[in-house]
Amino acid sequence: xxxxxxxxxxxxxxxxxxxxxxxxxxxxxxxxxxxxxxxxxxxxxxxxxxxxxxxxxxxxxxxxxxxxxxxxxxxxxxxxxxxxxxxxxxxxxxxxxxxxxxxxxxxxxxxxxxxxxxxxxxxxxxxxxxxxxxxxxxxxxxxxxxxxxxxxxxxxxxxxxxxxxxxxxxxxxxxxxxxxxxxxxxxxxxxxxxxxxxxxxxxxxxxxxxxxxxxxxxxxxxxxxxxxxxxxxxxxxxxxxxxxxxxxxxxxxxxxxxxxxxxxxxxxxxxxxx
Amino acid sequence: xxxxxxxxxxxxxxxxxxxxxxxxxxxxxxxxxxxxxxxxxxxxxxxxxxxxxxxxxxxxxxxxxxxxxxxxxxxxxxxxxxxxxxxxxxxxxxxxxxxxxxxxxxxxxxxxxxxxxxxxxxxxxxxxxxxxxxxxxxxxxxxxxxxxxxxxxxxxxxxxxxxxxxxxxxxxxxxxxxxxxxxxxxxxxxxxxxxxxxxxxxxxxxxxxxxxxxxxxxxxxxxxxxxxxxxxxxxxxxxxxxxxxxxxxxxxxxxxxxxxxxxxxxxxxxxxxxxxxxxxxxxxxxxxxxxxxxxxxxx
Lengths: 274, 299
Known about the structure:
The complex is a heterodimer of chains A (about 270) and B (about 300).
Chain A: H1 7-29, E1 31-33, E2 43-44, H2 47-53, H3 58-90, H4 96-108, H5 111-124, H6 131-155, H7 160-167, H8 172-201, H9 204-210, H10 217-227, H11 230-257, H12 264-270
Antiparallel strand pairs in A: 1-2
Chain B: H1 5-46, H2 61-68, H3 70-103, H4 108-117, H5 123-134, H6 139-146, H7 166-189, H8 193-201, H9 206-235, H10 238-243, H11 251-259, H12 267-297
Helix pairs in contact in B: 1-12, 2-12, 3-7, 3-9, 5-7, 7-9, 8-9, 9-12, 11-12
């Protein structure tokens, strides 16, 4: 077989292209002065890192807000997806095609369209500028993904295990906790990780519905970018990026550790939305 | 007992139906209650309807206003161009990279791992990184200076806040190509190698093997991923807001500008732009899926 001579060069170039932007962010976060045309900072300093890690700063409350909203979205859409995924994965019913279509619509239609339209209702019911309002808005893109991931898992799920437990006199709740949920754990983990990330990374829905009063980390990052303080913006960008990276790493490890058969490709593919 | 047969069967069917309805209810509440309401109310408001306000009337003023507005027409072209370029670019690059990763043994694991690093990172972070790379005082400009190609920041071409939106496109490609690549690799992993060997044994040239063996196998997966890319880039706000110009800006940016305008009269235009976005992206996805379908059948 012919071996491409340029392949190692291409691979190196590709690695550089993928990583250079992130490395550049990391360097900028600890930079004090880095004037044009120097290729390396003139001096380093921990000012930006100290600002973003200062417990008294807005960043910490932004972190708490972001994590709280994302965790709520993950739990709610996980539960909603668990139920709807079961209906789609295990049952056939009239209108199933429509339900699938309706679930795909929020994937295609931009979030800004929907939030501009629904804002008037949110204002009327005093959900605008509130955390619950932002959670509801984030559920729109999150729920379809959770449902589709779990529906795929349910099609591989054998209900005979549930029947066996029930015949032996186990209560429905205990069947759910001890039979169904363990079997679906990998898919549920993936669904919740994914929806957490969708919410964590969301910017424009939070801006529109939160109206600037709900300050998640992406909103703080946007204003830091606008402020022109590059070191601070870069440090904040790292604060926004590290939790998702850790989450994906830990989830991937947990899934392989459990010997789960969830396709890691599928999982990662779904991350495209986040 | 036998007489009760059909009756219990019917009752069982009704119970199963009820069960499905209960299981689906929360998801439908989100998809219909929130998404459907938002979409429907957006359409109605763009036509003059004002819930909770007396004295509204039906009108197409918002749409005629948009049609007469040169800025909006420019935005539409810009949005379409950017989205199509990002989708096509990421698909082509992803196919190339997937073939490269698939055929290299050394560095394959490393490359696959690195491809995944950018996936969970927010687009906003990517946008900041791209401005640090591509602006006139960015890393590339400094490298050009070091190479003796330029002697000041102004000599370096404006890639951020430029008319074309090079940095916006670069961010989309940087973020979306790895995503499409991973999807393509997953499809390739489902045993394209034996098929390729068979094709090679039968005398197929590399291009023929690619066109008739690899492409039909990965096309559905790459196509599905590209739909996500297309839809996302069409409605994206934060990337062009950071890296692009305020004028002409993509539709999502213009929608937000009009929505927050102090002149309340242009607000219906914001909602109308939202509707235009939704209609255009749906049409675009439909056209794209049809093209893909043809690619799959024309072997």
